[in-house]
Amino acid sequence: MAAVVLALVVGGAVTSRMLWHDPAQAGMPLNVDLEQSAGIRFTRVAVVADGGLLEASYVVLDPEKATRFQSDREHPPAIESEERAESTERVALMKQGHQMRAGQSYYLVYNNSGGVVRSGETARIVYNGFVLEHVPVIG
Question: I want to staple 49 with a disulfide (CB 3.0 to 4.6 A). Which of 53, 96, 100, 102 is the partner?
Answer without folding.
Answer: 53
